[in-house]
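@channel anyone free to eyeball this complex?
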Amino acid sequence: MPQLTTEHINYIIKDLHYRGLVYEPLQNELVDHICSSAETEMEQGKKFIDAYQEVLKSFGHTKGLRETQRQTIHSENSMFKAMLKNYLTIAMRNLRKQSFYSVINITGLAVGIASCLVIILYIFNELSYDKFNAKADRIYRIDSEILFNGNHLQMVTASAPMGPAMKEVYPEVEDMARFRQEGTILVKRSIDNIRETNVVYADSTIFNIFTIPLISGNPKTALVEPNTLVLSESTAAKLFPNDEDPIGQTLILDNRHNFKITGVYKDIPRESHFHFSMMLSMESLKDSKNDEWLSHNFVTYLLLRDGASAQELEAKFPKLIDIHVTPMLKQMLGPDVDMDAFLQAGNKLDYTLRPLLDIHLHSDLSNEFEPNSDITYVYLFGAVALFILLIACINFMNLSTARSANRAKEVGMRKVMGSLRLHLVNQFLMESILLSIFSFLIALLLTYFAMPFFNDLAGRQISIPWTNPAFVIIIFGASVLIGVFAGTYPAFFLSAFRPINVLKGNMALGMKSGLIRSGLVVFQFSISIILIIGTFTVQQQLSYIQEKKIGFNKDQVIVIQDAYAMGDQLQSFKDEVLKNSAITNGSISGFLPVSGTNRNDNVYWPEGADPSQDNMVSLQVWSVDQDYVPTLGMEIMEGRNFSRDFPSDSGAVILNEAALKMFNFTEDPIGRKIATFGGGMGANGKPNSVSFEVIGSLKDFHFESLKQSITPVALFLRKSTSRVSFRFQASDTQGVINTIQNTWVRMAPGQPFQYTFLDQAFGKMYDSEQRLGKIFAVFAGLAILIASLGLFALTSFTAEQRNKEIGIRKVLGASVSSIVMLLSREFGKLIIIAFILSVPVAWYAVNWWLESYMYKVEVGVVVYLLAGLASFLIAWLTMGFQSMKAASSNPIDALRSE
Amino acid sequence: MYRPLMHSPELLKGTLQTILLKVLQDNGKMYGYEITQKVKELSVGRILLTEGALYPALHKLEAEGLLQTETVLIGKRVRKYYTITVTGKSLVKERVIEFREFIKTMSAVLQVQFA
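replying in thread with the prediction:
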C-alpha cells in the first residue's frame, strides 16, 4: 500500500485550511480520512494529485467540506442545555462585572415595564366594561338627537311609548326594557330615613336582557306588580343588618309610598355603565304608560334576535316616528306642520341604536346614568405606555452599543478562538433576555406596590391578575420578547466586528456608531418634552377652568341635599339657620349651576306672536326663590331681582343673556313678555297660553361643564324644595356646619343630613380632567426619569472613554469648566434638536385635546419654552454631575498607566 | 463496469445512527474512513456513507456520550478512533430490536415477505 509523504500531507493540510476547514477536532480527522482515501485511490495507479482531486470530489469540494464542518459543529451544539448553561454563566458574569450599567439598565427597564403594565391593565379594564352581560353583543340602547330652534339635544333617553311600540312592530326585537332615572330617594323601614342614590324605575324584562342574577326572588315576577321593588345585595345588607329576609317586607319611600320587596340582586359589577342601588317596578310609574312621543325620559334598551342587523332596524325608525309624532307636531305647531315640514325647517328628530359595549368608551350624552370614560384616554394612555417602553428599550440599546468598545476585544478574542457569529449573537441575546427577565421581576414588584396609588389616582379598582395563566404566560413571553427586541441590534452590531481591526486596537466604535445613538437620544427627549408640554397644558386648562369668571360665586356656599324631607317646615328651617350671623343668605331651590342638580326645559315665544318654529325658544326653566340670585352671587345686569315687595312676581321671569339673544330682546328687555303653552285648547281653536313679564336680565353663568356653551336660562319664582343653599362667611366653616346640622336634627329627626359645598360640586364636574392631569404628570415624570437614567449612563461612559483625553487636556492647562462644557456640548446639542422636533408634534396634540372645550386656555409660547428649559435642565444636571466628576479628577490617575 | 445497486439516501436516513453504533459494537475501535469501508463491505457496496453525513453524526453521538474517542499519532497524521460506550451499547440493543419491529411492520404494510 502506497504511503503519502510528509509533503503530501502538508499539502493536504494547507489546502484544506485554505478551503475554510478550521474546526480543529474535525480537521485532523478529515485529513486522516482524506489521506486514507487517497492512498486507496493511488493503489490503483493514480498520481497523488489526481487521487486527491478524486477524494475531494467525493466530499463535494470546498462547499461540501464547509457544509460538513457546519453540520458537525451544529450537531455538537445541539446539546442545547449545555450551551444554554454556558451562555447563562457568561451572561451572569458579564452583568456582575458591569454592575453599574446593569443596575441602570435594569432600573430603567423595570420602571418602564411597570408603567406599561399599569397602563395596560387600565386599558384592559376600560375595554372590559359591560362584557359581563351574557347577551352583550345583542343589546342596544336607543339614543336620541333633537335639534329644535337652535337647541341641540343629544340624549340617552327616549320616549315612554317608543320601546314598547318597537317591540310590538319589529320582529327582530326580541325584548325591550326601559329605565327611568329617579335619582336620590329617602328610604325607611319604620323610623329612620336612609338616603339612597342611583334609584331607577325598571321594566320587569331587565332580568331577561341584562345579566343581573337574583339572589332571592323570582326574576320572572319580581318587578311585574306595581309598588314592588328589588334591592341590590349591599343595599339589602344596609337596610337589613341582622340577616333578616328582606323578601315580602315593606319599605317607605320619600316618607309617602309603600313598596314591597320582591327580590335581592347581586351587586352590579364595577365594570358596568350603571350601578343601581334599587329598582322600582315600572308599573308603579304612571308616566311609563303615557303616549307622549316627544317627551324623552326613558333610557330604553333593545335585545335584538340572533343575526338581526342594527343598521337595518335603524332604517325602519323614521316611518314609526312619522306615524306617532306627526299628530303631536300638528297639535303643537299648527295643523299644516307635518314631519317633512318640521325637518325641512332645519330641525332634527333622530334615533339611533348604540351597542351596549360602545357605551362606556364612546357615549357622552345628556342624562347618562354615570359619567362614562372616553376612548381618547385609552389611545392617549396606550401611546404613553408605548413611548415609555420605547424610551426604556432605547436606553438598553444605547448602553449596550456604547459599551461595545469595551467588549470589542472580547468579541475579537472569541472570534479568533473559533467562535461563530451565531454563538456571539446567542451570547448577547442571552444577556439581554436575562436583563429583561430581571427587569420584569422587579417591574412586577413595582407594579404590585404602585397599583393602589394608581387606583387612587384613576378612581379604579384594578387588581393584578396573578392567578390568571394567560397573564403569567404573557408576562413571561413579553419579557423574552423585549429581551430579544432590545438585544437584537446590539447583538448583531457587536458580533459583526472584524477581529483583525478590534485586536489591532484601531477601534473607536464606542464613539463611531454615534449617529444611531444620537438619533435615539433625540427620540427619547422629544417624547419626554412632548409629555411635559402635555402635562403643562392640562394643568393650565384646569386652573383656567377653576379661575375663569363663571358668572356666579362658587365659594363659601353650602348646599343641603334632600331638603324636601323637611316637608312644610322648610321655610322656617331656613329662617332658623339664617339667625346665625355667619350665614348671610339662604335660598330654597333644587336648581344649581353645577351638573347633577335639577334641570327642566320648556318652549317659549315672545308674547303677541303666534308660536311658530321660527320664534320658539327652548329655555332652561329654573324654579327659584327671591334669595336665589344673592345667595349664588349672580349678577343682575338690568332690571331687578324677584322681591317680596312685588306680589305680582309670580308672573315674572328673569332671563340670562343667552336667552335674551334668542328672543331678540337685547335692546331694552325689561317689561317685555314671553309666553308658553298653558295646556288645553282655547275658544279660538288655538292652544291656551300663559305669559310672563321680563323683570330682569342676568349675566351669563356656566351651569354645565365648560365643554358646553351657555344655553338660555329663565328663572321663575316657584317652589323647588330638593335643596337649600346658604352663603356663609369664611371664618368658621365647621361652626356653620354644626349650626345647620343641629337645626336640621332638631326640626327633622330621623331624616339624613347631607351637605356638599358648591365649589366641590363644581370641581367634581372636572373630575376626569383632574385625574387625566395627575396621571399624565406622573407618567411624564417617569418618562423623563428613564430618559435621564440613560443619559446619565451615556455621559459617564463618554467620560470614561475620554478619560485620557481629559487627563491630557488638564495637564496642558484646560480648566474644569471648559472640560464640563466639552462633555456636555455633544448631548446639549441633541436636546436642542429634540426640542425643535417635539414642538410641532406637541402643538398639534395639545390643540387636538383643547378642541373639545368651548372655553379654553391660550397655550402660550411660555409653556413650550418652559418644557424645553425643564428638559434641558434635567439633562444638563444629569450630565453635569458626570462631567464634573470627570473634569475634577486628578489627571495622574488617568495617565499613569501608560 | 459492474455498479452495485445503491440504496437511496432517503431510506438510509433514519438508520445511520443504528448502523454506526452496531458496526462499532461489533468491531470495537474504528476510525472514520475505516467505518465507511466496513459498511461498504458489509453492504456489498450498496451503502456508501458520505463524509458529509458521517462526521456530523459521529460528533453528535460523541457529544451525547454514546461514543468515546482516542487519538493516535501516526507520523504526521492524527487518527481519531471511536469506541462505543456502555450507554451506547444499551442503546444499540434497543435500536436493533426497534428496527426488527419496523421491518415486521413494513412487511405487513407492504404485503411482502422478507427473507
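from a first look: Residues 80-129+374-512 of chain A form one domain.
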